[in-house]
Amino acid sequence: MKKKLFAANWKLHKTPQETKNFFQSFSSVMKGYQNQFSNQMAETEVLICPPALCFGTASESLASESSALTNLEVNLGLQNVYCEPKGAFTGENSGDVAKAMGAKYILVGHSERRTLFHEANDLLNKKIKYLNSIHLKPVYCIGETLEQRDQGQTNSVLKKQIIEGLNGIAATADFSKNLVIAYEPVWAIGTGRVANVQQVAEAHSYIYQVLKELGFSDQVRIQYGGSVKPENAKELIQIPHVDGFLVGGASLEVESFAKIIFN
Ligand code: PGA
């Protein structure tokens, strides 16, 4: 079964204390949801990606709350790692260390990394290869800018990002199962401007086709991200080939994140 994956990208928000508070309150809200959403919980996976310096606290907090979470799978990830496990790479984070500390997923190529830190597809490809070699699951973020959409380039941009990001990686059943593609139109991230149902449906079905042509199985999960909120989550999750969300702003508060997952 392909569980829906609801991921929280906290970006550079929250202190260790706020991280701890979040996990306490999240697990108590989930406890309250147990009866009503018990079936849905078994088909749902939650991923929290705190800032790297809060990862240790997140890991400890999750461990101490795990008994309250019973049949809900909750995992942790980092928002970025370097493509090498160690070495003279000042300021970077190691995927091997993240894994040793309990990370299961790593975001790769978020649009803020692409834009602000100039990460290009060839570097992202190295990161995905490295993550694959150590069995961490990549959440590979792709998406077009508004200008590209207006010029009718959405599909070609998405295809290029997929082909270059996954270049040279064998489309094995295991890799397909571990791979997550997050479709995040750049113009919808943090803007309050969500892509409409037709735009999301078209992009997700196109991404699904491209992955299929490249030989990946339908176990790859394709998330939508960009201004997801409790008010639009219900409509978006019903779109074919939408296998979950990558949520920024609305994942910072337990109440809104919980309502996005279970509604
Ligand atoms: P947003 O961010 O939900 O605040 O638009 C999404 C993301 O950046 O992953």
Distance between the termini: 21 Å
What structural class results from the helix and strand content? alpha/beta
Biggest sheet descriptor: 8 strands, parallel, barrel
**Counted beta strands:** 8
Radius of gyration: 17 Å
**Average residue pLDDT:** 96
What small ligands are held by the chains? 2-phosphoglycolic acid
- Strand ordering within the main sheet: 1-2-3-4-5-6-7-8
Structural commentary:
The chain is built from 11 helices and 8 strands. Helix 1 (16-42) runs parallel beside helix 2 and helix 7 runs parallel beside helix 9. It has an 8-stranded parallel β-barrel, surrounded by 6 helices. The protein has 263 residues and is an alpha/beta fold. Bound molecules: 2-phosphoglycolic acid.
Sum this structure up briefly.
The protein has 263 residues and is an alpha/beta fold. It has helices at 16-42, 55-69, 95-100, 111-116, 121-133, 146-150, 154-165, 173-178, 197-213, 230-237, 254-261; strands at 4-9, 44-49, 73-78, 103-108, 137-142, 180-183, 221-225, 244-247. Helix content is 47%, strand content 16%.
